[in-house]
Amino acid sequence: MGPHWLQIGLCAAVVRSVTALQHCGAAYWVVLVFCQVLPVASGCGASPKSVAVPPLNPEASLPPLGLYCPDEHLKWSLRWKGLEAATSEMVTGQPGEIDGKPAIIVYSLSRSSELARIFREVSEELTSHISLVTGRPLQNVSHNVEDRVSEILDVDYSDTRPGYSASLSGTVKKREWTHDGDAADFHSFLARLRFWDGTPASGTFVFVQSARSYYRVDLAVRESKSISTPAGKTAAIRIHGHATRLHLDGKKLEPPEVREFTLWRSDDSRFLPLRFEVETRLGLVRGTLVDFHQGDLAKCIETQA
Q: Could you list the residue range(s) of the whole structural domain that residue 90 is in?
């Protein structure tokens, strides 16, 4: 998972939520909505809504580094048809070095609830090693368990031969993909999206790897307004996403697989992902930030240098 001293900072934050994590939950299709947004957002099979994508503006590009706050802990509740179906938690470690490169570790965990486990038991962990020089992931490892079937996915983001190695029930498969050098994983994508200062009606895009899949995600800032959260009314920026699944060589699938999603980010110095919505073939899934811990916000800015 990384150097021991990096794990200490990460695990200290995780320990604060051990009890909560034991009661996390979601059915399989709901767990992946947030912990791995794009697979559900693009592969559910129902026809997507038609949403116009604004013209691209080079000045509105996502920042290369994004926002990383050491010891930050975020927790979301996921609801479907009014019922809490899941919680997802994400923890950021302390900045340090991995293989001599300035880096930081981000870890997330989701598990199916007791009710959902009657039908299917699922857990998913994702650990990302992210460069604090380029903002790109260096490596990520996911461990997924579905009905006692375990899969480990080890993804390498080397410049020469990016790809992944998947181990499912003892069988190892290796694949490579082609990208433009700016591919993000889920954690680095969310960090960059949080720190994006795009203006309304401007658009940009980014390539994202999520599990075994590869996506082009077109983004647009829609508006800034006050929304209701568990902590009360909060000013938020609404960001719309249009995800198109690609072959590993970067070509679009035929027929296309696309999905729409929306993220509300706090319009303040905390840059909190307050709420998100994703349309799935089983209906609208909503996620809400229900708890968070942030240390010294000044340190969040320092990691961008």
A: 4-302
